[in-house]
Specification:
single chain; 232 residues; 2 domains; elongated; binds uracil
C-alpha cells in the first residue's frame, strides 16, 4: 500500500494532510525518514508519525436497521444517507454493502472491508437475501412454483434464479432470493400481477437482523457474524 494512503487510513489525517506530513519529514518507515508520498509499504513495516507507531486499524463491520426515507448511497439531494445514522468517526471510509430502496426497511450491512463486501455482492456468490413482503393483493399459491422455477422480469431476457417463497398470511410472504437485480422483489410481484406495499429485509447470507435494533439503530457485527460470511 502507498504510504500516504496508509497514514490517512490509520490516523485522523486526510489524504492531503498525510501527504504534507510525509513530504515535510514527519513520517518514518523502519526508522528511516521517508519523504516520498507514493513509497510502498509492506504489512511488516513499522510506520511512525512524529515517532509514534501507527498500527493498522481493524476493519469495521456494522448492521443497521434501515428506516423508511433513507437511501443506501452517499449522495442524494432529497433523502439522507443511512450513513448519517452512524455517530462514529471516519464515516466516509465506510461503504454500504448492496442497496435497499428508499421505501424498503430492514437489514443493511456497512463496512470498510472491500473484499468482504465483494463476497456478499458478487453475482457469482449467489448470496441469499430474505425479505418480509406485504402485498396489496391476495397471494395466489401458484406463485410458489413460478418463483421457484424463475420468471422473466419486464425488459429482461434472463429469467430470475430460483427463489423460495413461504406464505405467512393472505397478503404477506417471506421471500428468499439469491440475486440483487434493480427493484427485484417489486418487479417479481409486478410480473405476477401483485404489488408490494411494504418490504423489509431480514437476512443477508448467514446474518440475520438483530431483533433488538429499532428503526435506525445499528451495532457492530460479532466475530462469528463476520467470519460466517467468509466461509461461503
Ligand atoms: N427488491 C426491491 O424491489 N427493493 C429493494 O429495496 C430490495 C429488493
Amino acid at each position: 500500500m502507498r504510504l500516504d494512503k496508509y497514514i490517512a487510513q490509520n490516523t485522523n489525517l486526510t489524504r492531503s494532510l498525510a501527504k504534507q506530513a510525509i513530504s515535510s519529514g514527519q513520517v518514518s518507515v523502519n526508522l528511516e525518514c521517508i519523504k516520498n508520498t507514493a513509497f510502498k509499504i509492506n504489512p511488516a513495516d513499522k510506520v511512525c508519525y512524529f515517532d509514534k507507531l501507527i498500527s493498522a486499524l481493524d476493519h469495521r463491520y456494522i448492521m443497521l436497521n434501515k428506516p423508511l426515507g433513507y437511501i443506501c448511497s452517499t449522495q442524494d439531494e432529497v433523502h439522507p444517507s443511512v450513513l448519517n445514522l452512524l455517530d462514529i468517526d471516519k464515516r466516509d471510509r465506510l461503504h454500504i454493502v448492496g442497496r435497499l430502496d428508499v421505501d424498503t426497511t430492514g437489514l443493511v450491512l456497512i463496512t470498510d472491508d472491500g473484499q468482504w463486501s465483494h463476497r456478499i455482492t458478487s453475482p457469482k456468490k449467489n448470496c441469499q437475501k430474505s425479505y418480509l413482503v406485504d402485498l396489496t393483493e391476495k397471494v395466489d399459491a401458484d406463485i410458489i412454483e413460478i418463483f421457484k422455477k424463475g420468471l422473466l422480469l419486464n425488459n429482461e431476457i434472463k429469467p430470475t434464479l430460483p427463489a423460495q417463497l413461504i406464505l405467512q398470511s393472505k397478503q404477506k410472504v417471506l421471500l428468499s432470493i439469491q440475486e440483487g437485480r434493480y427493484h427485484q422483489v417489486k418487479r417479481m410481484f409486478a410480473a405476477v400481477g401483485n404489488h408490494v406495499e411494504a418490504l423489509h429485509r431480514i437476512s443477508i447470507g448467514t446474518i440475520t437482523l438483530d431483533a433488538q435494533l429499532g428503526d435506525g439503530e445499528w451495532r457492530y457485527l460479532t466475530e462469528d457474524e463476520i467470519t460466517s460470511m467468509n466461509l461461503k
